[in-house]
Design brief:
Radius of gyration: 15 Å
Oligomer: single chain
Distance between the termini: 25 Å
Strand content: 35-45%
Number of domains: 1
Shape: globular
Strand order of the largest sheet: 1-2-4-3-6-5
Length: 113
Amino acid sequence: MDFETAKAHAMGVLFDTDFFSQLVTYTPKGGTPIADVPANIVYGSSLTDNQNGDGHTWRLIAERDFRSAFNRNGTRSIITVVFRVADIANPGYGDTVEFGGDTWTIKDVFDDA
């Protein structure tokens, strides 16, 4: 197996909904929803782990239930979402990801390169 074949196989496994991924609905801000997009979801986020792209995936930070407070004690739930570049061409701030009955809003997009 050559490198390109191995890479394609690994991406296939990583985004296989029987193993690591789940199907979500991705909606660009002001755009048309894209249903059944495979994504890897990790609850929580470590920004240092998400800054380096690999040229094949997008790493997005999304939040729900953000409640700001004047005393700076805001609360929110955060996830890291990973999509294949081939599935989501140009993710952006304010786009949404829906799954499990929850809607998450994209707050950070880490380049794929």
